[in-house]
Amino acid sequence: EPTGCGYLKMYRDFSDDYGFPGADRLVSKLVEARMEADKFEILTGKHQEIGTLVVVSNSPDGRIPMIQPLVNGRQYFVYHPQVELGLYRLIEEPITTKLEEITQAKIHPAEFRDKLASLTKKHVAMTLDKLASGKPVYEVTVTSPTELMIKETLAA
Question: Is pLDDT above 90 for 151?
């Protein structure tokens, strides 16, 4: 069954708005480069998501549950900012090393990570504005391995 990504669709269709003119070619290449085992495509049509879940953890064990976008028959956009930051920490050193090779300039990994996080925050807001405008946003806070709090924040 194909999987898709609204963010990639927005990035492809509104590359100038996202600050990367010509990103449509990059997105096409990313989709082509996806592992052969997966059938990955940018989905078209209306999104059925009824809101957005922003998942954060204050749990003493630091675990962050990966909440699936389909919950009790309802679809949600799901954003895990702490997981994203962890992934950025994993990739910052190899990417900045390669960028230094290409540019011959010193790149500070923490600065790179901060700029990437800032850019992502902007892109998440833009994407939600296009795909989930007016829909509720729920902050899901994990307080322990067995407890969580849910509060509705401003609509997207």
Answer: yes
C-alpha–C-alpha distance, residues 55 and 151, integer Å: 11
Give pLDDT, residue 70.
80
pTM above 0.70, yes or no: no
Do strands 147-153 and 137-144 pair parallel, antiparallel, or not at all (unpaired)? Answer: antiparallel
> 59-83 pLDDT, tens per residue?
877 778 777 788 788 888 888 888 8
CA gap 77, 137 in Å, rounded? 9
How far, in Å, CA of 92 to CA of 89, rounded? 5
Looking at the structure, do residues 3 and 40 belong to the same domain, yes or no? yes
**Angle between the 6-13 and 23-33 helix axes, to the nearest 10 degrees?**
140
Same domain, 81 and 33: no
Q: 60 CB contacts (<8 Å, ≥6 apart)? A: 144
Identify whether residues 8 and 19 lie together within a single domain.
Answer: yes
